[in-house]
Write a structure and sequence with these properties.
The chain is α+β, with helices and mostly antiparallel strands and 244 residues long. The protein is built from 9 helices and 4 strands, in the order H-E-E-H-E-H-H-E-H-H-H-H-H. The protein folds into 2 domains: 104 residues, 2-Layer Sandwich (Beta Polymerase, domain 2); 122 residues, Four Helix Bundle (Hemerythrin (Met), subunit A) (Up-down Bundle), CATH 1.20.120. 56% of the residues lie in helices and 9% in strands.
């Protein structure tokens, strides 16, 4: 069995069979979400993330997955999110950004689609957005100081932090009633236009994250300075959303 999964759909029958064996009639649906459900999927580098919906009774059988986890991880199949419909419904006000991003990029694999019909409370979404951006801004400032200005450390900080902003951009577009593109550069462009911030900075950071940009360490420090500045502007924009 090859470890590298060239196309996510190639693994669907196997995953479905394994989860049916584990949960039986308590398995309600399987959904692939994240980069594996988009054009951003890179075989051998991207993880495959699955949301698995089971009944409350099915939660008692989680231990049946123990023998599968090691094999999945070797093939970059992340440990799945297992939840019930009741848990999902009760978690929407706490994690609206996470579920919104699942909704934007997902592929139903088995059973009903639990994500397509989800709607998100605007107040809950804005509050989480504000909390996340302020937290990221503080983290970036702290990381900047810890780096002591070393370009390699700043580059790593960009790589670690950038993906989280993609999720936050989706939330901005949702709050403004705009379509949410699945392509990453289009997502950055559209959200930054709405927020009045420089999308080119985030696009350049994305290229560093995806390792598609020339590895020019001399350019990293000034880019990070601009990155930090634009995240500050993003925070200002979200503060303004309180009045809407």
């Amino acid at each position: 069995m090859a470890n590298t999964i060239k196309k996510p759909e190639d693994i669907f029958p196997e995953i479905t069979g394994q989860l049916q064996t584990a949960f039986g009639k308590d398995l309600q649906s399987i959904v692939l979400y994240g980069s594996g459900a988009s054009e951003a999927y890179e075989p051998g580098r991207s993880d495959l993330n699955f949301l698995v919906m089971v009944t409350e009774e099915g939660m008692k059988n989680l231990k049946r997955l123990h023998e599968l986890i090691g094999g999945w991880q070797k093939r970059r199949i992340a440990t799945p999110l297992i939840m019930s419909k009741m848990f999902l419904e009760n978690a929407l006000d706490v994690y609206p950004i996470e579920f919104l991003n699942m909704q934007v990029q997902h592929v139903p694999v088995y059973g009903d689609d639990p994500l397509s019909a989800l709607a998100f409370d605007r107040t809950c979404l804005r509050l989480q957005l504000e909390r996340e951006v302020k937290g990221k801004l503080l983290h970036l400032r702290q990381g900047y100081l810890d780096s002591e200005g070393q370009a390699k450390k700043l580059r790593d900080l960009i790589k670690i932090s950038l993906v989280a902003f993609l999720s936050l951009f989706a939330a901005i577009l949702y709050l403004k009633g705009s379509p949410i593109p699945s392509a990453r550069h289009a997502l950055i462009r559209d959200a930054c236009v709405l927020a009045g911030i420089d999308g080119d900075i985030f696009s350049r950071c994305l290229e560093i994250k995806e390792e598609t940009a020339k590895d020019d360490l001399k350019a990293v420090a000034p880019l990070f300075d601009q990155y930090l500045l634009e995240v500050g502007k993003m925070d200002d924009f979200i503060n303004q959303l309180k009045a809407e």
